TrEMBL record:
Subcellular location: Secreted
UniProt-recorded name of the protein: Peroxidase
Binding site for Ca(2+) 1: 65, 68, 70, 72, 74, 86
GO cellular component labels: extracellular region
GO molecular function: heme binding; lactoperoxidase activity; metal ion binding
EC number annotated for this UniProt entry: 1.11.1.7
Keyword vocabulary terms for this entry: Calcium, Disulfide bond, Glycoprotein, Heme, Hydrogen peroxide, Iron, Metal-binding, Oxidoreductase, Peroxidase, Secreted, Signal
Amino acid sequence: MASLTLLLSFALAALLFGFSNAQVMFGFYNYVCPNAEAIVNKEMVDIMAVAPSLAGPLLRMHYHDCFVKGCDASILVNPSAKKATEKVAPPNLSIRGFEVIDRIKEKLEAACPGIVSCADIIALVARDAVALTHGPCYQVETGRRDGTRSVAQDVIGNLVPPTSNITALKAVFLQKGLTLKDLVVLSGAHTIGTSHCSSFSSRLYNATGKGDTDPTLDKNYVPRLKSKCKPNDQKTLVEMDPGSFKTFDVGYFKQVSKRRSLFLSDEALLHDSETRRYVEHQAMASPDEFFRDFAVSMVKMGRLEVLTNEKGEIRKRCGFVN
Ligand SMILES: *[C@@H]1O[C@H](CO)[C@@H](O)[C@H](O)[C@H]1NC(C)=O
Ligand SMILES: *[C@@H]1O[C@H](CO)[C@@H](O)[C@H](O)[C@H]1NC(C)=O
Ligand SMILES: *[C@@H]1O[C@H](CO)[C@@H](O)[C@H](O)[C@H]1NC(C)=O
């Protein structure tokens, strides 16, 4: 009880006086929109029941948002005739589920007008997507505000393409203040969802520019992937963690350790001793430790360059800067 009171007074103080160095915090909406997280969760339960394949894309949306200019919902801004926004930048890895965010935002605006940011909705939706695919239920910090800038070029160098090697992966994560452990843990998100053949087919058909197959792929697995992805197939979707791509578990690490991952950026985790050790350990482990690690890394990622206090705004509609 004491801690709840403390939390409430903290939230109130943060709201009324604005801490000079305010950060996101657990339960930011407890006082100003007490049902915010329950409203998000109820919508997510309904949406996942009819469109479970959105879990992966919705989780990825949070990563894209946070890695490009911070977790500020800049990923959601619609392009105009004059301006290409992050949403239409080529490395968007075909993010889907924007209508989910809009639908939840409408419910939240009806309950608490002008209070809940789109950036927080993305973070809560990612959390619920994980929980609803049998992953960990973790606490998400809130209190982010929405950015007013979204420019396609900002994406360059901030996201890691699926063709990245370990050097490039490390560079981007370290530059964000994240660690190698965060890299390998967050890569575990590939335990749910699918990928277009085009994101990895060079490994099947033209690994070194000589029409060859990537020698780091399990030879016995290659024919199976080739049967799903014909050369130049841009459209077909392949399960990233075959057999359990709708379940958040340690299956991804099993795939990577067996050299059956789809992306070069997954295979790359075997090219650093620390990330390799983690992959091999989790491939044999019960999911508890990975679940705890994932929650920690998601909270860290959710703090990247957040806007709080008087910075940014609370968008009225997530696709449009006010
Ligand atoms: C992603 O980028 C591509 C290439 O610029 C674009 O054609 C596509 O519409 C974008 N996806 C979304 C959801 O806007
Ligand atoms: C890793 O990728 C970067 C960027 O594409 C490239 O410049 C570098 O040469 C690559 N490093 C290795 C060891 O292949
Ligand atoms: C294979 O890669 C090389 C070098 O990138 C390229 O010149 C060639 O056209 C590619 N072949 C096919 C079939 O895509």
